[in-house]
C-alpha cells in the first residue's frame, strides 16, 4: 500500500493529510494558538484535593485547572530522589496521603482538554524519542507489544546492554518503539543519550522555575510527522513551505534520517491539498451524510456520550437478490466507517448500525472486514460482535478533539440542537408572552421585536390572532423586524 504525506503550512496553522492509494485516510490540524498539550511537562501546583473523588486539581497555568486521578499518581519509593518521583503501588494509597494543597508537583499531560473538561495529568513522566520511550522514574527495559513475541527477548537483551553501557546515564527505564525494531546499536545509543539529555534539562528547569511553569513541550505536528506518521510504506513527504522544509530537514537529518530522506519541497502552482481534493474531503467529513460508491450511504451523528453511524442501502439495487444487496452494502460500509473514524478522529463509544443480515456467515464476514480495516488505525480500538439488536459496539481511544470540534462551533441560532422552532410556534409563544405581560403591567403599547419571518407571519396568516389579542387586552401591539435575530429569538418591549 502506497502512502503519501502532504503538509500544508501557514504561520497560523499546519495541516497534514495521510493519503493511501489516492484516498485521504487521516487529517491532522495544529493551530499555533491552539497547539495540543499531550506530552508537555509542567511544574504544577496542587489547588484542590478531593478525597471523595480520589482526585486532585492541579494549576499548570492554563485557563482551567487540570485533573489528576489517584490511578495516575506514582508515589515516592524508599530511597527516591524527591516527591515528584514515584512508582505504582497496589492497592493505591489514598490521594490525600500523597498530595496536599499548595504542593509543587511535576506532572505530564496525558489527555488534552476536551469540551468543558480540563487536561488529564500523570505524575509518571515519559519522553518519546525516535526509537525509544524514556521512563526516568523507572528502571524497566521493555519492548513494544506490537513487535512479534519471537523477537522481543533478543531486542530486550540488546537494549538492556546499551542502557547498562552508559554508566553516566543515572538510571531510567526504556521501551523500544515499533520503528526501532530494525535500528542499529549506534542509533539506539544516540536515542538513549538524547532522551537522557532532555530529561536532565527538564530536571534543571524544575529547580529554577516557579510553579505553573512549562518545563518541556512535546514536538510540533511537523516534527511528529517524521517521528510518528512516516514509516516504511511512506513514499514521500511533501511540504509547501521552503522555510519549514529546511528546518524540518535539519531536524530529521539529526534524529530521523530515514524519514528525512523522503522529505520533498512542493513547488507546484496549485495548492498542495488540491492534488487529492483534500479540502473537499474535509468539507464532507464535517457533514452527516457519507456517500458510498455503491449508492448506499452512512449517517454519522456525534453526541457528547457516543457516536452513532447508520448504514443505508440508498439507491443500491445491483446485487442478484436482497440479501446480497445488504451484504455488499455492509461490506463496503465496514471500510468506510473505519476510514471516517480516522478522518474525523472520532473517539469514545461508537455504535455502528449495519443493515440487518439474516445469514450468520454474512455477519461474520462483515465483522471480519470491519476489524481488518480498524487494524490499520494508529489509535487503539476495541470491537465487540453483533448484539441482539444487530448493532456493533466499539470504542476508539480519545486522544484529541475530533475534527468537527476543532474546526466548528455550535450554531448561534439553534445552539447546537440542529433544529429551531417554526415561525408559527414562535408567533404563538409571543402571543402567550404578551398576554402574560399584560396581566402584570399596564403599558401604553406592546412592541414585538422579532425576526423578519415571524413578523411577516404576524402580518399575514396570524394577523387575525394578533388583532384579537390586542382587542382582548385593550392595548395596541406593534411589530418591528430585526434581521440580526434568529427565528426563535424575540423581545417584547413595554412602551
From TrEMBL:
- Keyword annotations from UniProtKB, A to Z: Cytoplasm, Endonuclease, Hydrolase, Magnesium, Metal-binding, Nuclease, RNA-binding, rRNA processing, rRNA-binding, tRNA processing, tRNA-binding
Per its UniProt record, what Pfam families does this chain match? RNase_E_G (PF10150), RNase_E_G_Thio (PF20833)
| GO CC terms in record | cytoplasm
For this UniProt entry, which residues form the secretion signal? none
Under InterPro entries, the record lists: NA-bd_OB-fold, RNA-bd_AU-1/RNase_E/G, RNase_E/G, RNase_E_G_thioredoxin-like, S1_domain
Gene3D superfamilies listed in its UniProt record: Nucleic acid-binding proteins, Ribonuclease E, catalytic domain
User: Where's the S1 motif domain?
Assistant: 37-124
Listed cofactors:
Mg(2+)
Q: Entry's PANTHER family?
A: RIBONUCLEASE, RIBONUCLEASE G
Which named protein is this? Ribonuclease G
